[in-house]
Amino acid sequence: DRIHLAMTLDCNYLRGTMAAVQSILHNSGCPENVVFHFLWLRFDQDIKTSIKTTFPYLNFKLYRFDSNLVQGKISKSIREALDEPLNYARIYLADIIPTYVKRIIYLDSDLVVVDDIEKLWRVDLQDKVLAAPEYCQANFTQYFNDNFWSDPELAKVFKGRDRGKNPCYFNTGVMVLDVEKWRQRGYLQKLEEWMAVQKQKRIYHLGSLPPFLLVFAGNIKAVDHSWNQHGLGGDNIEGKCRSLHPGAISLLHWSGKGKPW
User: Fold this and answer.
1) How far apart are CA 174 and CA 253, in angstroms?
2) The whole model's pTM is what?
3) 59: nearest Cα among 78, 87, 84, 38
4) Is residue 137 scored above 90 in pLDDT?
5) Tens of pLDDT along 154-202?
6) Distance between CA 201 and CA 243 in Å, rounded?
7) Which of 102, 227, 249, 256 would be 233's cystine partner, CB 3.0–4.6 Å?
8) Residue 112: burial class (beta carbons within 10 Å; 0-12, 13-18, 19+)
9) CA 158/CA 51 separation, integer angstroms
10) Are 215 and 190 in contact (CB under 8 A)?
11) In 3D, which of 135, 138, 158, 141 has the Cα closest to residue 214?
């Protein structure tokens, strides 16, 4: 009956992580069943103490993410925060957490949950490896540059999935993962292969998101959009704040530059 959640720990995002954890516990029908798996780059006693004093009964485990895993594999993106090694930890999650964990929810540290997380946990993956809210009207030309679309071998990756340049987009800040199938089917290698292509040909500008789209777009289990009201905190300087998706909201995600803290 345990619900396994994974998040990263970074001193710059600690307030966001604390708010996310509090919101999950507050809205959970059975908070004692929730287990948090935190990934961090290096041991930080202050962070560990903050978690223990704020949530004395929290069931959590800490894992070190070895930045050497992405050494030489990260290409500069349009936002400096996206270039941090910890931003790529989700790609290696299945190899870091214990093998007894068969399913896990990955959450970014800039969100607030306003519904019972068990509803998301119980999604029927139907033999899919990944579940997330899906957006099939997205224009993929903004996620991949001309180096990608002008190469026939690369561009055909999305052919047959949906509608050519309009396959279904999903945000990697909220994902339900069948980590057992992930391990069995070698998805880490598939993602790393695209990271290698990026280093050689520069086919995108957005950090760790595009490899997920290249591997999974059009082949995930779609869940209700209420579980990732993303795009909040858009670039306020340029007036790019995004309108909310219509309908009920289960999770608010400040995936833009502006964070609540």
Assistant:
1) 9
2) 0.93
3) 38
4) no
5) 988 887 665 445 578 999 999 999 999 999 999 999 999 999 999 999 9
6) 34
7) 256
8) buried
9) 42
10) yes
11) 158
252: CB partners within 8 A, 6+ apart: 111, 112, 114, 229, 232
Residue 115 one-letter amino acid: D
Contact 61, 37 (CB under 8 A): yes
Q: What CA dihedral angle connects 35, 40, 44 and 49, to 10 degrees?
A: -20
pLDDT on residue 164: 47
- 149-168 in b/e burial notation, b at 16+ Cβ within 10 A? eeeeebbebbeeebeeebbb
User: Is there a contact between 85 and 41 (Cβ–Cβ < 8 Å)?
Assistant: yes
| CB half-sphere exposure, 234, CA atoms < 13 A | 10
Closest CA relative to residue 125, chosen from 175, 168, 190 = 175
Structure token digits, residue 53: 């004093």
Tokens, residue 2: 């345990």
Cα separations in angstroms, 261 against 18, 121, 246, 258:
11, 27, 25, 9
Integer angstrom CA distances of residue 72 from 91, 162, 171: 15, 33, 24
How many CA atoms lie within 13 Å of 248's alpha carbon, on the beta-carbon side?
Answer: 6
